[in-house]
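Box 3.1 A note on notation
Throughout this textbook, protein chains are presented in two layers. The first layer is the amino acid sequence; the second is a token string describing backbone geometry. Keep the layers aligned when reading.
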Amino acid sequence: MTTTSEASAQVVTGLYINGEPRRTQDNLAVADPAKPGSVAGYAAAASTQDVADAVGAAKAAFPGWSALSPQERAAQMAEAIAGIADLRDEDAAILSRENGKIVMESWVDTLVFEIRWQLALALAGQVEQDQILEPAPGIPVTTTVSYQPLGVVTVIVPFNWPVAILGASLPHALLAGNTAIVKPPPSAPLATTRIVQRVAEKLPPGVLNVVTGRDADLSGLIQNDDVAKVCFTGSVNGGKRIMEMASASLTRVTLELGGNDAALILEDALLDATRLDRLHAAVFDTTGQICMNAKRIYVHRSRMEELVAGLSARLEKTVLGYGLDEGTTMGPLHSPVQKAFVEDLVDEARESGAEVREFGEFPADPQLRGGNFLRPALVIDPSPELRVVTQEQFGPVIPIIPFDDEDEAIAMANDTWAGLCGSVWTEDQARANAVGSRLECGYVWVNDHGATRLDLRAPFGGMKYSGMGREQGIQGVRAFQDTRSIAHLDEAAAAAAAH
């Protein structure tokens, strides 16, 4: 495994537009969240003209790319992804430095991108499956309903799992016949840019472009009549802003805006080592910075003590440290602002009288002093009005709230602005299905929770303020298509209808 000293070389990335790498006069300094004042690398800062060029290149490439059959596009995409794993160790190390998470998670981040890409290619045979509507009483026509691509698509990904999240939409957009521009997160653009460029280099010029820079300079990726759709993953406020900007040109949007996922531990749940390991990972993976992490745990009062003891035993083994250092189990939060926010949630809960248990020790390395590290915490039986319950913490803290009645638990789980995911923990399969079907969210696990068990073939997306639209699976392809209906008058049916 790479150590801190072995990962000291800085990375510099550029833009990739119309099949050509492009340097810019201005660059973004990408901070290392574990080391105050340290720079992980530099990314190109695009100008408004660079953005316009990217949109123009994608528009120009669209007719040729969309004219191919899905199978022909899939063949080129398969060739483009070949060998992507050759630099996976290097990509993962770069992602850990700019993001802060441990290198194993960064390695999986890049792996999931490849898996999602391959799963999308397997859908090639369904992309243009027409629907035939035969004549019916009073309708003397035979109608063929077919699918067509939209045009130029912008895909905007967040800092936490940027490469994996990109894989939930980009290959589906390309397979559907669209051309694309990828906008990596400004605070962690390096690994994503490298990976996208390596894929884009093997596709026709303009089919896939990557643009990095300051958000203020990149509005043309959204507010442009030639951009047909924006796919955005990020915060609720960010999603509102994207939707507002897109409304000027009636640009379509898919929004995945985070969650406040509830895990319901019923009285008959099996809380053995395996299940407790799963729940611990569902809360604390990536220092709690995953949209589909469990953010609230509701546990039957009879199992409360057992659950707290099981999670505490696992948290006692936490090793806070640099993401590339061997033995580190939890890295820093990505930004000082997020660290301050999570600290405030924990302090507020403590001051309210809730029991707060914190675990682990801050890193002893002087280079890491002042980094965005936070000790993981359990907040036991807090008031449901506290922000640690009502807001998405996006950090290593979890409220654990007892309940006495199943209906009470479901009501508390649904009493939130969010509707991304949830989970039910029980040994009764029928009960799991019954409870799960009452949760107001887009995805429900049984006896598990989180990204490691997400079925990458299934549609994924949220309800309420967690967003709109779906990614993955054939539904994810359809999100980048529109329908076209061609109706032929059936002379015999028309004549029969006239009598």
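The mean pLDDT is 96. The first strand starts at residue 11 and ends at 13.
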